[in-house]
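Shape matters. Shown next:

___
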Amino acid sequence: MMGVLRHGLFTPMFLWLAVIVVALATRPPLPVDETRYLAVAWDMWLEGHYLVPHLNGAPYSHKPPLLFWLMTGGWHLFGVNEWWPRLVAPLFGLGSLILTFSLSRALWPKDNKAWHLAPVLLFGALFWCVFMTLTMFDMMLAFFTLTALSGFVDSARHGSWRGFLIAGIATGFGVLAKGPAILLHVLPVMLTAPWWMPTLNGLGQLPKTSRWYAGTVMTLIVAITISLVWAIPAGLVGGEAYRNAIFWDQSAGRMVQSFAHARPFWWYAAVFPALVLPWLFWPPIWRATRRFGDVVADGGVRLCLIWFGTAFIIFSLISGKQLHYLLPEFPALALIAAHLLNKPSENPPISARWDSYPPAGLAMVAGGLLIAAPHLPLSGRAASMINESASIWGGLIIASGAVALLSRGADRMSQASRLAAISAFAVMAIHLAAVPVLAKRYDLGVLAGYISALQNDGKAIAYFGKYHGQFHFMGRLKSPITSIGLLNDDIEEFLAAYPDGIVIAKYDTLPSEATPLFTYLYRNFTYAAWPAAALTANPGLGERR
């Protein structure tokens, strides 16, 4: 076990700890996603809405409850705090690194170098490293995808029902994490077993096709049962609108609606290379692709190709694209790359000793640009934010690049570990450089505290426009905030019902026709708190301008 940690998992686990500590210490929860999920968990904790999640007093149907259960579960153990709910998703990211190691060992039992290299390559992908710090659902989805696929490989190797049961449980919890989307990541691998299973490395007796698909049915039954154990009572308690949302909108309805968003089918192909930096500039990766034809018949490679390829194609065909949708496929690429990199080369090029130079040099240039950014002839919002940042932290990126340069002539694992450290230090440097900007422009804690004090004084609070819960957890609010300006007469109704109420509104340019009670700068906007009387005297005061 110590050898595994020393060679395969110690580096990414140590770097994970450093990145997460810096991220949690320097960055406040970011609207609208992170603050919204914290608000749902806070409502669950405050009101006991464990079966049907709520946001601002209304049922919240956009996401299943597992993340919120884990957040509140930690509060039961540690008390209400900010660090635990923001640690849940990163912990699943850490678990995914461990499962990537485990799955590599299951796919290629004799390729121990690939076992150790795969989690390093996964962690070192810059986008994965960045996203691992965020309170989102995709690290959970990646974890349960890896668990389910590990179960399939176990059943393929041993012909037992245990793996199917593990896969079913993981898929069921994946549904509770982010809805039926997990099926896009695991179902293609299940259904195409006759293509990858016969050539799985080290496989003994091949399971019968009928037995395999019986196990597939078992997996789906277990997954559906787990999800319905929550969904049926939640649908009954939440009412018809909530029931329709969780049974339709989180699956087929969302897929249909996504075609309304305009992003071309080639968008993922265009942006994906940037997501796997610095590996894009590491020559061994490109040399290893020449050996792809020699390994494409390998069952483990085929499994990973199906895993990545089908999801990539499906998400490319759907117009509603987000970069993080593909995060559960990053382990597949890391596994393939690790396996290819450890295939022996008959004539390694003399230039191989310089392999670390392109990505390390790029890192040093990037760090230098960060340091020099305040002195560049930039203008507009970007220039303002750069001038406020502590750009000297770009030196961390330069230092990590310099250390990587010292790996000239080192073995693959040492080079990869030092290059993975570049991503870790880049993420830490960006967080540290952004501390002044985050504190001044991105922390809603001051405004949330002001709203909390108003509520404690018995004031009714309204928000002009759609409210996403961004103040609720930050201010530990005890009562919902009324959204106004969305329906006919809802402004007049609030002002008539609460003549001493307070209205929060957001502006590009603060109105001059009245004096607000309180203002707060957020990004390039200004939040203002108005007494109800000001809106009564100045109709349209709350509208954004």
